[in-house]
Amino acid sequence: MPVKKRVEMNKLPIEERKNSFNEVALGLTEEQAIEEAKRCLQCPNHPCVSGCPVNVDIPKFIKKIVEKDFLGAYRIIKEKDAIPAITGRVCPQEVQCEAKCTLQRIKEPIAIGALERFIADWAIKEGVIKEEVTRAPSNGIKIAVVGSGPAGITVAADLAKLGYEVTMFEALHKPGGVLVYGIPEFRLPKRIVEYEINYLKDLGVDIKTNTVIGRTYTIKELFQSGFRAVFIGTGAGMPKFLGIPGETLVNIYTANEFLTRVNLMKAYLFPKYDTPIKIGRKVAVIGGGNVAMDAARTAIRLKAEEVYIVYRRTEEEMPARRDEVINAKEEGVKFQLLTQPIRFVGDKENKLIGIECLRMQLGEPDESGRRRPIPIKGSEFIFEVDSAIIAIGCHPNPLIAKTTPEIKVNEEGCIIVDEECRSSMKGVYAAGDIILGEATVIEAMGTGRIASTTIHKDIKNGKI
To answer: Cβ(157)–Cβ(129) under 8 Å?
Structure first.
């Protein structure tokens, strides 16, 4: 019996995408979702589950979709995934659960992410999320969760369900972490994040914004105020720089600053929101990951005439999701590959007018498994641009480590933890990008699940 072709979700027309911040991927219809779910082979060994960092029972929820039991499917997903409407949109399923799908070897894997999104969106539309909130009676034990990104959300939800009194501390004025400041509206609408955050509130989690742990309160002060355990999930939000001449010229942004202004502070709605952002006529985005694609596609929507991805390897080595590269190309982003910036060039007013670059060629693979870029001698050239966005990665903010030296960190500034997410300070746990460096949303959630399990176990066993 021939295997049916994978169902692909529809997208907004390209011209509409380029002129709005509306969500690009439109999701599956009920008919499409059922048709796609029927492709699942219901393998007895469930290889897809091993590819999911939070171990969602994927075949089980897909079977419920075939049976049109969408509430049942939602409950199965929610057992392991606190934010399915988000993970269904931004998880790199193609290298996780879908990569393990048996159909991957035969034809095309099941569209697991699209099916998860369908069920989560159905639950939002039908208003069943609030009805599904259940938690154990309060045990009176206070837990502090520092950071409201994916890892923090997972820990807060897990522990609140078990009856703990959870307080979440967020440095910014809105909870959600990278989900609100880093990922653009056209990829993850902020109303979706708000729905998922409201689920935490319904569980009884007390969310305190504009609170910088390490400055407003130290970790020790949290313990002194009655918290039994402190979880740190502050992510990796400090941008990395190229370290080349001219990096302080006017009209050079980090992707972190650029996307935070646009996403969290709504610069794309200026002057309705008082967050001006200047974007040039010709923009270079330096980097090849998802953040670089987000920045480039955002610049297109802010009416830049030309937007370039400047990357020192080839497209094949780019860490960005394939779908995001395709979307960027469809929307008019151009790719300047095998190109390494070595100097930013400014005019007399210290405004950016170009980037001096070197042509590169690929050598043998490096420690990342990708072929190493090697400069071509004498290949220098000036790439004329009037704005640049540096998107080469981030590392953790050192504030907590500086104010609490008992918490040990590695050379990258990541908190050192054992296999169960305990830090070097008793009662302090950590997960997500603060221990992993830059990782995916679902990877952060996976480590958050380990941390919440450990916290509960240590309290039950009297270790803290």
So the answer is: no
Residue position matching structure tokens 């911040």: 21
For 186-233, write each residue's pLDDT tens digit. 999 999 999 989 999 999 999 999 999 999 999 999 999 999 999 999
Strands of 252-254's sheet, edge to edge?
A: 252-254, 387-390, 282-286, 306-310, 334-336
Which among 109, 121, 130, 139 has a CA at the least distance from the CA of 41? Answer: 109
> pLDDT tens digit string along 399-453?
999 999 999 999 999 999 999 999 999 999 999 999 999 889 999 999 999 999 9
The arithmetic mean of pLDDT across residues 42-60, rounded, is 95
- pLDDT number for residue 1: 47
Q: What gap in Å lies between CA 405 and CA 409, rounded to an integer?
A: 9
User: What is the pLDDT averaged over residues 86-90?
Assistant: 96
DSSP 194-261: HHHHHHHHHTT-EEE-S--BTTTB-HHHHHHTT-SEEEE-----EEP----TTTTSBTEEEHHHHHII
Angle between the N-to-C axes of helices 58-66 and 70-78, in degrees from 0 to 180, rounded to the nearest 10 = 170
Q: How many Å apart are CA 295 and CA 318, to the nearest integer?
A: 15
Query: Residue 198 to residues 80, 153, 201, 404, 464: CA-CA distances in angstroms?
Result: 18, 11, 5, 31, 30
Whether 159 has a pLDDT exceeding 60, the answer reads yes
Stretch 75-87: mean pLDDT: 94
pLDDT score at 196: 87
The DSSP-derived string for 80-138 is T-S-HHHHHHHS-GGGTHHHH-THHHHS----HHHHHHHHHHHHHHHTHHHHT---PPP
Query: How does strand 339-346 pair with strand 352-365?
Result: antiparallel
**In this structure, what token pair is assigned to residue 391?**
């998107």
Q: Which two tokens stand for residue 46?
A: 């469930």
Measured distance between the N- and C-terminal CA atoms of the chain, rounded to whole angstroms: 58
Give the Å distances, CA to CA, from 245 to 248, 313, 341, 436.
Answer: 8, 22, 10, 30
Cα dihedral sign for 72, 75, 79, 80?
Answer: positive
**Residue 397 near residue 238, CB atoms below 8 Å:** yes
